[in-house]
Amino acid sequence: MSMDVSDSFFGGFSLDFGFLAEASAEITHSGLSALDVCGMILASVGLVFFLGAAVGLYRFPDFYTRMHAAGKGDTLSSLLILLGFGLITLDDFSMVGWLLVVKLLAIVLFIMLTSPTSTHALMRAGYEDGVEPVTKRSPSTKNTKKEGES
Amino acid sequence: MTTEGFTVFAGAALFVLMLPALYRVAVGPTSFDRLVAVNVIGTKTAVLLVVIGTLFGRLDMFVDFALAYALLNFVASLAVARYLNRTRSMPEKKPAKRRAPRKKKAKAS
Amino acid sequence: MYPFLVFVLLLLNWVAFSGKFDAFHLGLGAFSALVVTLLSQDLLFSDRNKSAGDRFAEAGRFLRYALWLLWQISLANVHVFKLAITGSGQAEIAPKVVKFKTKLKSDFAKFVFANSITLTPGTVTISITGNQFLVHAISEATAQDLATGEMERRVAEVFEPEVAV
Questions:
Q1: Which of A137, A142, C7, C13 sits most deeply, having the most CB atoms within 10 A of its CB?
Q2: For residues A117 and B81, is the Cβ–Cβ distance under 8 A?
């Protein structure tokens, strides 16, 4: 079964999900419930924020500013996507479903705790290693005394 | 749009959005740039595992993988950051600083 | 009291993560939680002199602070998105490194404060030495937001009410 999946994944995106729909029919039923819609919206917003983080990682000028994009964009987008998929999966309010949501919340909490910590460790390593921060002379920083001109 | 379709879309989007980070891993000027990007990719892989679990309908199993992966990712990035911090800043910097003034003296005299 | 609290927390974690409720697995969980509690219960809750009422009040205040922090995280993400995508945001980037001293005393309060700085718009903590914070701000406006000290006041209200005011 796993071979089938990898074949279809790498053979383009026109997929036949008949067998997958069968496999997941016991958790997600065919019609869209309100929870599904909420989950989809949350996950989409999370994807948008992750787009911001990825573009920031690509475009920002130096190591420290890239760290801003990575450290902040990671947390909220992970939270939103995980909660969204939690809501999509949580269709029957059974014990198993609730345990699943608790585990997802544990992942979210863990990411919220560890992402700033590893950001901080990397920042400190970079700073003590002597990576120079870019300080661009833009009007907002250097002309604070001559505000009348700008 | 069905939930399956949306799940496939979300997984594909996550994968595509990892590419800028992968670019940063490939060309990042300093090793810390690469490390940041690897950290981001690792966090998103944990999320991608949850998405794949939803697709297979076995989220109860994949959620444990995602948890373990997030944990390992944190420990790995912390360990590498500490390693780079120790090895670079302690023994090599002081000789490098001493060498610079010597050259200036040689030029002056 | 504190060892018992640690034991209960560990056992709750075990139950949530295993998801099995038969006698064998619960017994195994209780045994593991007991062993871990005996070996390393001193790692959690560093200040053991606080009373239970103080702890619960602190947890309640921390929960309210976490909600405020969540709102700040959303603002930070919108800010990063604006900086990354739009042209005016790109022009706004003017990083600077800020140094300041904090009034917070306990290590945990400093840890929460440093993480909050990292998660709020435009600022990331670089290092803490003693009570000296080194912060990287992405633009002048965010550095000024930090200088007002509002977040430090909020953290102090949660963990050290006697320092705040």
A1: C7
A2: no
DSSP string, chain B: --HHHHHHHHHHHHHHHHHHHHHHHHH-SSHHHHHHHHHHHHHHHHHHHHHHHHHHT-HHHHHHHHHHHHHHHHHHHHHHHHHHHHHHHTTSHHHHHHHHHHHHHHHH-
- Give, as one character, the DSSP assignment of residue C97: E
Specify if A9 maps to a domain: no
Q: How many domains does chain A divide into?
A: 1
Residue A85 belongs to a domain = yes
CB-CB neighbors (< 8 A) of B57 in chain A:
20, 23-28
Residue A91 and residue A35 in contact, taking contact as beta carbons nearer than 8 Å? yes
Element (H, E) at C73: helix C52-85
B89 close to A (CB below 8 A): yes
Max CA separation in chain C (angstroms): 63
Which chains does chain C touch, 3 or more C-beta pairs < 8 A? A
Q: Could C84 and A52 be called an inter-chain contact, meaning their C-beta atoms sit closer than 8 Å?
A: yes
pLDDT on residue B109: 39
Show the tokens assigned to C16: 């949530």
Q: Does residue A97 fall inside a structural domain?
A: yes
pLDDT in tens, B60-80: 888 889 999 999 999 998 888
ipTM value > 0.90: no
Residue C90: closest C-alpha in chain A: A60
- What lies within 8 Å, CB to CB, of C99 at 6+ separation is C132, C133, C134, C135
Residues of C in contact with A68 (CB under 8 A): 80, 83, 122, 124, 136, 138
Contact C80 A144 (CB under 8 A): no
3-state secondary structure of C49: coil
Tokens of residue B58, six digits: 């076995």
Residue C65 token pair: 């602070």
Per-domain residue ranges for chain C? 2-41, 54-159
Whether C134 and chain A come into contact, CB under 8 Å, resolves to: yes
In residues, how long is chain C? 165
Nearest Cβ partner of A65 from C16, C79, C138?
A: C138
**pLDDT 10s digits, C86-104:** 877 777 777 888 888 888 7
A76 found inside a domain: yes
- CATH number corresponding to B3-108: 1.10.287
Residue in chain A lying closest to B75 (CA): A118
Mean pLDDT of C117-122: 84
CA distance B109 to chain A (A): 30
